[in-house]
Amino acid sequence: MPGYVKESLQPGETVEYQGRVSRIAVFLRPLIMLLIAIVGLGVIGSKQHNNTNAGLSILSLFIVLDLIGGIIGLVGRFIFYKGAEYAVTDRRVIGKYGIIRRRAVDVLMRELSGVTISQSVPGRLFGFGTVWVLAGGASRCLIYVKQPLNFQKAIYARLDESRLLKGTAAYTLDVRMTPTEPPPPVGASSPPIVSPPRPPMTTQAQWAPDPYEQSALRYWDGENWTGHVSSGPPAPDPSVAGT
Question: What is the pTM (predicted TM-score) of this model?
């Protein structure tokens, strides 16, 4: 696995799709420049052979500049090709490219809002393009991506899986329906959720008339009304009798 992506992974994070950089997209321009320079050198050689020197100095200058530009471009594109890395993990979209000015893309799946692709005519012919990752009202681009449609599909597949696990109604209901407190004891009647009634005149724990009118008596523990009720005469202390 390439170095940047491997170093960027968090504990437990895995790579779902490894993007590639298109060789044709990276090396096409400098190769065309070198091809033009080679053709120009052939033209100059033929004219010198025929002793026609008119305009050779200007043409030679352009050819030399084109040759130098092609060589420099080829070296630079090779460094770019070896250093660019694109990946889709189970949590993020990661990308890094650039030579002098390095650009890094790191977008969390939960922040991602969309993915678009732009392709030129050569890009459609040779299968490369630019992938735009939309998140937080901004867009980040990954250039010269080989088979950009596959990269886009990998992002959406992981995004759909994340939403299926954490964003569905079933998941939400499962979480909300999970009991967090033990059920009330059998025979106990919990007070309804209303404004708390006035306590008895004394703070001593005792049985008193049920202020909720659900039963004859309800037990006052000295601070709060409890769920212990009784329909008969004053019952014994629930902490002792276990009612």
Answer: 0.59
Tokens, residue 168: 């569905």
Q: How many other C-beta atoms lie within 10 A of the C-beta of residue 53?
A: 10
3-state secondary structure the chain: CCHHHHHHCCCCCCEEEEECECHHHHHHHHHHHHHHHHHHHHHHHHHHHCCCCCCHHHHHHHHHHHHHHHHHHHHHHHHHHHHCEEEEECCEEEEEECCCCCEEEEEEHHHEEEEEEECCHHHHHHCEEEEEEEECCEEEEEEEEECHHHHHHHHHHHHHHHHHHHCCHHHHHHHHHCCCCCCCCCCCCCCCCCCCCCCCCCCCCEEEECCCCCCCEEEECCCCEEEEEECCCCCCCHHHHCC
What does the block give as tokens for 69?
A: 């530009």
Q: Is the pLDDT at 202 greater than 50, yes or no? A: yes
Q: Which CATH architecture has domain 11-21+86-177?
A: Roll (2.30)
Domains in the chain: boundaries: 11-21+86-177, 22-83, 206-234
Q: What was the pLDDT predicted at 174?
A: 38
User: For 205-228, what is the mean pLDDT?
Assistant: 81
Q: Pick from 63, 72, 64, 110: which is nearest to 91 by CA?
A: 110
Instruction: Name the token pair of 22.
Output: 């298109």
> 56-83 vs 23-49: helix axis angle to the nearest 10?
160
The predicted model gives 140-166 an average pLDDT of 85
pLDDT of residue 88: 94
Pairwise CA distance, residues 234 & 236, whole Å: 7
